[in-house]
Write a structure and sequence with these properties.
The complex is a heterodimer of chains A (116) and B (114).
Chain A (H helix, E strand, L loop, with lengths): L3 E2 L4 E5 L4 E7 L6 E7 L6 E7 L4 E4 L2 E6 L4 E6 L8 E8 L11 E2 L3 E6 L1
Parallel strand pairs in A: 2-11
Antiparallel strand pairs in A: 1-3, 3-8, 4-5, 4-9, 6-7, 7-8, 9-10, 9-11
Chain B lengths: L3 E4 L2 E4 L5 E7 L5 E8 L3 E8 L6 E2 L6 E5 L5 E5 L8 E8 L9 E2 L3 E5 L1
The chains are: A mainly beta (116), B mainly beta (114).
């Protein structure tokens, strides 16, 4: 059972426009969420995160929104740039579960293409 | 700064061969991880080591073994490689516990098993 879902395998936007990447989760124990960006032939790199005590976190052009009641988060990139073209992974963890349950669960990723 | 270093970057094996993927981090992180990435499957955790001296199974541990050699190094071993283990393997490390894991990844090892 997939606990973190990214239902859009790909997204194409024009340079300067907004990119919105979506992520849904099913595990109500998840309380910390992260977005990673991955370029071809490189490892994923951390982009932005949000704790379940917040509903929004902003870092420059990147904003993550969390809707706990809907178990949904989204990543907004404004304005989109060609260098943002990459695969974006949503990830979640259950930090308050104790024990060794700190590991991340990743979604399948969304390929974002920003066209000049 | 090197961060997380993985070797080799590419490897081709025949079915039944064994090999060890090496990973080292220079950030003094406590936790280390091995993930595999397959098309359409995202990143799946194979094994992790929450701290030096401990290892635990992740989501897809079958066919693999790991060794946390010291705080810096975490190796992944395939004892008898199978075509189903063709994948891109990523090592990662982190130093945050109980807050939310921010992982730092290596650049990956592309493994093909023929």
């Amino acid at each position: 059972d997939q606990q973190v879902k990214q239902n859009s395998p790909s997204l194409s936007v024009q340079e300067g426009r907004i990119s919105i990447l979506n992520c849904d989760y099913t595990n109500s124990m998840f309380d910390y969420f992260l977005w990673y960006k991955k370029y071809p032939a490189e490892g994923p790199t951390f982009l932005i995160s949000i704790s379940s005590i917040k509903d929004k976190n902003e870092d420059g052009r990147f904003t993550v929104f969390l809707n706990k009641s809907a178990k949904h988060l989204s990543l907004h990139i404004v304005p989109s740039q060609p260098g943002d073209s990459a695969v974006y992974f949503c990830a979640a963890s259950a930090t308050r579960s104790g024990g060794s349950n700190y590991k991340l669960t990743f979604g399948k990723g969304t390929l974002l293409t920003v066209n000049p | 700064n090197a961060g997380v270093t993985q070797t080799p970057k590419f490897q081709v094996l025949k079915t039944g061969q064994s090999m060890t993927l090496q990973c080292a981090q220079d950030m003094n992180h406590n936790s280390m991880y091995w993930y595999r990435q397959d098309p359409g499957m995202g990143l799946r955790l194979i094994y992790y080591s929450a701290s030096e001296g401990t290892t635990d199974k992740g989501e897809v541990p079958n066919g693999y073994n790991v060794s946390r050699l010291n705080k810096r190094e975490f190796s992944l071993r395939l004892e008898s490689a199978a075509p189903s283990q063709t994948s891109v393997y990523f090592c990662a490390s982190s130093n945050q516990e109980g807050v939310g894991e921010k992982l730092f990844f290596g650049s990956g090892t592309q493994l093909s098993v023929l």
